[in-house]
Amino acid sequence: MHYLGSIEGAGSRSVIAECDYLIGRDAPSTRIAQVAARVLRSYLASLEALQMPDASPPEGITPLDESDHLLWGAAFAAKCDAICTYNVKDFPDSHIAVGTPLAIHRWIAAPQLEHCVQSVQLSDRGTFLFFGRLHHESSMGPILESGGIVTVVADEKGFIRLKGAGVKRCSAVKPLPRDTEFRLTIRYNCTDFEAALWTKGSSGWTEDIISTGAATFSSETKPLLCFVPNHRFTGHIQCLSGLPRFVRDKQMPAALDNYSLEAVAGSLDLKRYLWLTTTSM
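Above: the chain's sequence. Below: its structure in token form.
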């Protein structure tokens, strides 16, 4: 079976063994680990994924992480067009294309809402990623709300500001553009707040900081943009995502290239997912 009529999956014994190890390491109980391992195998079976023998990659091709040596070998043995992984930074894409599940899905599938808006999980520190275009500088409106004491908002001229009793300082430098596709990140923690636009050139991604500040963010921080009734946002969304971590500069290119923060933290959410599963079983 070809997923979406375009993808045929392939793996190897070593890849499955590593999945089992990670599940066993992060699962809160043996029962949860066993169920998760069975679900993994059921999923691969339903895709009719090829199981390739463990093999070494061609001479001269070395992964950045030595533990991925056999994964590289399986990908070359199966003549794969792409490696699907959250750890895109560990795989130089000069030999085989590399992308997160969402990025690969976007390469081959017609755009759907669920391809654009992922789960936005924020806390007293976090990173929010927006890809899209505004009809007017003012049309983004309220973006984040935190514990009733801090709101991140784009004003009527497109400047991103911090408002509320929990705000310590804020400096809005540049406004958001209108009728232009842009990539916006909002990153914050207990001491720093930063909103920035990113552009990609021949030398990679460049950051243009448009707002800075500091505020007392709560663990109950939530997105407002498009997630609440009667929001005034008008524009076009290519991607929204968020996670409860201040993503470092060196990790941002992977997220920007893959249209999602899952490229930074997707695989690191395994423990959280397995522990949440416990409450529903």
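DSSP finds eight helices and 15 strands in the chain.
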